[in-house]
Design brief:
CATH superfamily of the largest domain: Rhodopsin 7-helix transmembrane proteins
Radius of gyration: 33 Å
Number of strands: 14
Distance between the termini: 136 Å
Shape: elongated
CATH class of the largest domain: Mainly Alpha
Largest sheet: 7 strands, antiparallel
Number of helices: 13
CATH topology of the largest domain: Rhopdopsin 7-helix transmembrane proteins
Helix content: 40-55%
Number of domains: 2
Length: 527
């Protein structure tokens, strides 16, 4: 009786040892220079027991028939005959070994690679795909003895997870594979090349033209449905219409102030207001033209409107940057800031740079109808802008956005400098006290505090900092609404700033005249 038990124990221990050998392959290969290649070779050769709880499937399949493998209830792999046929070492093989396994995503660590030299001036920096791996698991698929890539009939991978069921609308998913074909001294990274993503209810379907290590990257989804799209459109159109109106009124206010009291700051404000007026007027014209029944018949009109919109956008960014530069001269340089023909030189930069950009892009044929498809929806909106068919549209967009980021960063530093100066001035006059004495602050000090806060907020709009809210549009839907409201009302904010400056100058004139009359009275009485 003890002999069968001994044999059964030996068989069980042998199977357990073999299973442990297959399970330890990822950790053993991790020390290798290319651990994925080590894993591919080792997982196909390790001894796998017939009964084990490892998520590894190894089957000999007919190379002329479609193969389908299920790994647990989460993953299904379907491989077309053309992929199996391509994986054979020689033509005489009728069957190939198909290996499918599930690995922990902790073995796949992305690191920022070193920039590589390109043809241009700047080095090429590969972009790393961000996101969490769905279920913290990676699916490995290999067939035959040869690499399988550039397939015309794609392989299909189906991912099913509880996370998709519970947060199907709140998550954005992307099918990726682990690309370690870079030089061996550089780390691998996730890539979407050759893979497409499709959702079918609670299932994610990945279609790829090669075999590799596959996963699904999950990110928070800021989906804009048709109702939100209509709401944002109404907010944008109404806000831009108000901006056109109030920017036009602001021009008269600034021109009037400039005639009464010529100042360089008024000249800069006038140029920025003109740029904002052109920007919002151009946006409304470009948006409504494509909605006309015969709006797209005259492509040259859309071409001209797209050029005008791009020119006014770059002009707005440029004049916003010049506002920050003028503020720098007033706060930092203070003395010896006289520049001959100052406003003329600013005008050459403020209007010359956008004109040069628009002319170059216009000669290149960059403008026309632009179709924007909202993410995770079939909603498409059109506008006269950079043409969707223009080959270098993304390059022009990246340059424009990079210029905006530099302007916002520079003006943010200028605003921080203003806050620091105000704090020092008020601190020197004992206007602000420590937190323990805030209860004793008088009404006058509170009024001064609110005026300083209003000054900072007004300068934020003049310096174009609301454009920096574009960064929050990728986080939440509320961020999209905040960005839309603030930037569609820029003309209105400029109007409020012009009114505030006019009221301040009027108050200063009244106080100055009062002081002169009282002085005259005292002199008359003393005589």
């Amino acid at each position: 009786m003890w002999i069968p038990l001994l044999l059964l124990t030996l068989c069980f221990s042998t199977s357990q040892t073999e299973a442990q050998a297959c399970a330890s392959i990822p950790s053993k290969c991790e020390t290798e220079q290319s651990w994925t290649r080590c894993y591919e070779e080792a997982i196909a050769q390790c001894s796998l027991p017939r009964f084990s709880n490892l998520n590894i499937k190894r089957n000999w399949v007919n190379s002329l028939q479609k193969a389908e493998v299920n790994v647990t209830t989460k993953y299904t792999v379907q491989i077309p005959p053309s992929a199996l046929h391509k994986s054979r070492w020689n033509e005489s093989e009728k069957e190939v070994l198909l290996v499918v396994s599930v690995i922990s995503s902790t073995f796949f660590k992305q690191q920022t690679p070193r920039p590589r030299k390109g043809r241009g001036v700047f080095p090429l920096q590969p972009v790393l795909l961000q996101g969490e791996v769905l279920g913290q698991e990676v699916l490995f698929v290999r067939a035959g003895s040869r690499p399988v890539k550039n397939l015309t009939h794609l392989i299909t991978l189906r991912f099913r997870h509880k996370e998709i069921k519970t947060n199907s609308k709140a998550l954005s998913v992307t099918c990726v594979f682990w690309n370690d074909s870079v030089p061996l001294n550089e780390p691998g990274r996730w890539s979407t090349y050759g893979c497409s993503t499709r959702r079918n209810g609670e299932e994610i379907i990945c279609s790829c033209n090669h075999l590799s290590f596959f996963a699904v990257l999950v990110n928070p989804n800021t989906e804009v449905d048709e109702n939100h799209k209509d709401n944002l459109s109404y907010i944008t159109y109404v806000g831009s219409g108000l901006s056109v109106l109030f920017a036009f009124i602001s021009l008269f206010i600034y021109v009037g102030r400039h005639r009464r009291r010529p100042e360089k700051a008024n000249g800069v404000h006038i140029q920025l207001t003109v740029a904002l007026f052109c920007l919002h007027l151009g946006f409304l014209a470009c948006s409504f033209w494509v909605q006309l029944p015969n709006g797209m018949d005259n492509s040259w009109v859309c071409y001209g409107l797209g050029l005008f919109l791009h020119w006014s956008l770059v002009a707005t960014f440029t004049w916003v940057a010049l506002e920050g530069f003028h503020l720098y001269l007033l706060l930092v340089r203070v003395f010896n800031i006289y520049v001959r023909r100052y406003l003329l030189k600013l005008g050459i930069v403020g209007w010359g740079l956008p004109s040069l950009v628009a002319i170059i892009c216009g000669i290149s044929g960059a403008y026309g109808k632009y179709s924007l498809k909202l993410r995770n929806s079939n909603i498409t909106t059109q506008i006269c802008w950079l043409s969707s068919e223009f080959q270098y549209r993304h390059l022009v967009s990246y340059i424009t956005v990079s210029f905006l980021c530099l302007v916002v960063l520079y003006n943010s530093c200028m605003l921080a400098l203003v806050v620091f100066k105000l704090w020092r001035i008020r601190g020197g006059r004992e206007g602000y006290e420590c937190s323990s004495n805030w209860k004793k602050m008088t009404k006058e000090k509170w009024t001064r505090l609110w005026k300083d806060c209003a000054t900072v907020l007004g300068l934020s709009c003049v310096l174009g900092l609301p454009w920096g809210l574009a960064s929050v549009t990728y986080i939440t839907l509320a961020g999209i609404y905040v960005f839309t409201i603030f930037n569609s009302l820029q003309g209105f904010f400029m109007f409020l700033w012009s009114v505030a400056l006019s009221c301040k100058s009027q108050k200063e004139q009244n106080s100055s005249s009062d002081r002169d009359s009282s002085t005259q009275k005292m002199m008359t009485t003393s005589c």
